[in-house]
Amino acid sequence: MMTAKYCPRNEIKKLEMDIWELKVKGTDLVSYTQRFQELALMCGRIFPEECDKIEKYVGGLPDMIHGSVMASKLKIMQDAIEFATELMDKKIRTYAERQAKNKKKLGDTSRNNQNQQQQNKRQNTSRA
């Protein structure tokens, strides 16, 4: 019975496939960036130039920030990471503020409805 040999080339191929399929999950940019950097370090030969690495990194970003990072045409990987992080933080903050504002509006609306219902009850009682 023959046993399969460990082949580092197959491992590298798998890592290269991982980096091409890598995308941000939800808004977890930190995990994406960390995994991207690990894979890019292990598969350095697939990014002969810094701009190639940046292009691949930006390609895995969510649509909500992808265009802005792409348009910035950054030349250094660290700058791309920092800019993407800044944009993602801003988007998350804006979303949270919007949610809080909507929740407050909803609370105000339900309070107004309760007041209106109580006024209607009082009017109906006085009529009777």
UniProtKB/TrEMBL annotation:
Residues 98-128 are annotated as: Disordered. Keywords: Nucleotidyltransferase, RNA-directed DNA polymerase, Transferase. Residues 98-108 have a biased composition (Basic and acidic residues). GO terms for molecular function: RNA-directed DNA polymerase activity. The keyword Phosphoprotein does not apply. Residues 111-128 have a biased composition (Low complexity). InterPro entries: Retrotrans_gag_dom. Pfam families: Retrotrans_gag. It comes from the Eukaryota. Residues 2-62 form the Retrotransposon gag domain. This is Reverse transcriptase domain-containing protein. It comes from Tanacetum coccineum. The lineage of its organism: Eukaryota, Viridiplantae, Streptophyta, Embryophyta, Tracheophyta.
